[in-house]
Amino acid sequence: MTKSQDKHVLYVKEELAQNNQRATSYDVARAAGVSQSAVSRCFKPGASVSEKMRKRVQEVATVLGYQPNAIARSLITRRSNMVAVVINNDTNLYYPELLVELSRDFNERGVHMLLFTLEHESDVANILDQVWQYQVDGVILAAQLSDTQLSFLGQRDIPFVYYNRTSDSIPCSSVQCDHFEGERLLVDKLIAAKRKRFCIITGPSDSSVSATRMQGALKRLHELDISDVQIIEGDYSYHSGQESLISMIDELDWQPDAVICANDIMALGCIDAARNHFKFKVPKQISIVGFDGAVPASWQAYQLTTVTQPLELMAQAAVDILMQRIEDPSLPPEKRSFSGVFSPGNTL
Amino acid sequence: MTKSQDKHVLYVKEELAQNNQRATSYDVARAAGVSQSAVSRCFKPGASVSEKMRKRVQEVATVLGYQPNAIARSLITRRSNMVAVVINNDTNLYYPELLVELSRDFNERGVHMLLFTLEHESDVANILDQVWQYQVDGVILAAQLSDTQLSFLGQRDIPFVYYNRTSDSIPCSSVQCDHFEGERLLVDKLIAAKRKRFCIITGPSDSSVSATRMQGALKRLHELDISDVQIIEGDYSYHSGQESLISMIDELDWQPDAVICANDIMALGCIDAARNHFKFKVPKQISIVGFDGAVPASWQAYQLTTVTQPLELMAQAAVDILMQRIEDPSLPPEKRSFSGVFSPGNTL
Questions:
Q1: Which CATH topology does B3-68 take?
Q2: What is the pLDDT of residues B82-126, one digit of tens each?
């Protein structure tokens, strides 16, 4: 740089500082004495620009603290490199693990996650408009949508992947653990262990995952001619697992020898209630099974018998499906379903 | 709408559909026969525009499926309504709870979270450039930065709040649980319980939270003339809690009657190793304490003695501090520190 060029750059820098402004590509252009489109080209991978120009612009950009603006660029490329992840159910410790997994997989591809959390699965409508406004490239939906809401995304050409849910009526991509099959397997294991008096602790009534799991268990029980099953609604939390077992036995006067919980965390509460409130030996007097393969289920104090979702595979599959459809929106939807893995544990 | 106006709108709609494009404000303007700036004003709260104009534009926008674009708007308002949240440490189940809390608080203010997760606390440098490129309005940092990295944010006028960390050398906003004080309290409780042979299981060596906690414990122990303390490095996980206790006793041949763990999850592993591997009665033969107030610490199988961070208060404080500085960047940094709450549990 010549001295006078140098002075001019510092003048622009000073001016920006006084006005408390971030440097834009126009400021870099002005300071470097080149056009704004030349600056743009210097920061666009693969764009045609001379080595001398690139060097000069990068020097000036460094002095001014300029960084190409991902958001402005997204208006040109029509890619924001952001995806929305919509999750619900803060009482289920399982989902935070999913977040970490998804975040890792997206970050490896230079894509960032805009996080939308729902207090209740049924709140999803409120956030769809916001998802749209941020012009994300795609959406991972770990919450149930109505067909109308799915159409909203479809009409706006926003690729999305259902996580642990699917729709039979609207074509859509999804990644699931086979909840239905997993519960059938657990029922068969309980029957093999000579269990006779069954009860089920469900998740919240608006949880589609809980509904599918419980249908799987009930269908298998009915096939085996076991129709006298006590069902009680939980909310996926440890405390609801405890309280459900206590009220089932103390209030409903139904003493089960097999408890099927719609998730692991409730099953852990159920184990503690069985051991501490009722002084039952688990599994000698009562078998308790969960679903998920949540981290605490494997801890020595519990060693829960459960079906483990292959979380890493599922997260990776969801990211793959979504990114492929962002790259090429003409790809048809794809559904992938993974079998859960039986974790024998010590409560059956 | 007159018929011919109507027809014109449908023509624009058809054209967009054929080209597979989202409607922009220019498309709405063209279809409604008004200027683009009129359309902008119609979607800007408080802007001056006639009721007739607003009605007409909204009708057309509805037909075309137009929604004002949050990203384009951010280029004008210089606000993206996005904040970055940088977290590390996927082995610590405590942080997912923080995410849910922060997400709730930000969403209430119409602000969305862009999530950056780190495998290791020391990876933070790699993501600062990306944070900057997305032009977020502010950053919550639940990972340690060097002073140089802090200056990077400062020079770019990006407001940020340190979560559970602070800097003594660079002015910055922070929200913390008083780790130092909390550990001193735990040491005093252990001494009151007549404990004599102390050991410490730390977090990973790059965790500043672990370092502060362990300094607090060690300083108090030294004040009480207890200098013979065994220290072993864990990684915040359940398994490292188990293994650390086992290797301390079996390999280092040091049998403690008090174990201070840098977080709750390690303490739970430590309890299980004490009970199952060594057949110790907890707390009769050995006291074990943690730090955090993580959800599983209160489960009946553990009932861990710990110091609980006031998570909701801390998350709310971090959001308040950040949003105030986004609104008014001239506000000076503010540090808020909350005392942890002693949770007696049953392991001391």
A1: 434 Repressor (Amino-terminal Domain) (1.10.260)
A2: 999 988 755 555 566 788 789 888 988 888 899 887 776 666 766
B123 touching A (Cβ < 8 Å) = no
* pLDDT top residue among B15 and A278: A278
User: Residues spanned by CATH 3.40.50.2300 within chain B?
Assistant: 78-178+311-341, 179-308
Residues of B in contact with A133 (CB under 8 A): 67-70
* Model-level ipTM above the cut of 0.90: no
CATH class name, domain A179-308: alpha beta
- The closest alpha carbon to B113, from B141, B142, B82, belongs to B82
Strand partners, B305: B289
Q: Which of A67, A115, A299 sits opposite B113 (nearest CB)?
A: A115
What are A162-197's pLDDT values in tens digits? 999 888 888 899 999 999 999 999 999 999 999 999
pLDDT in tens, A98-118: 887 898 889 888 888 998 877
Closest residue in A to B71 (Cα) is A134
Kindly state whether B132 is in contact with chain A, defined as any CB-CB distance less than 8 angstroms.
Answer: yes
| CB B260 within 8 Å of CB B201 | yes
Residues of A in contact with B115 (CB under 8 A): 85, 99, 103, 112-115
Cβ-based neighbour number of residue A97 at 10 Å? 20
- CA A231 to CA A253: how far, in whole Å? 13
Task: Please indicate if any CB of chain B lies within 8 Å of the CB of A77.
Answer: no
* A303 has a chain B CB within 8 A of its CB: no
CA proximity to A343, closest of A312, A302, A313, A315: A302
Could you please state the CATH topology (level 3) that the domain comprising A77-177+311-341 is classified under. Answer: Rossmann fold (3.40.50)
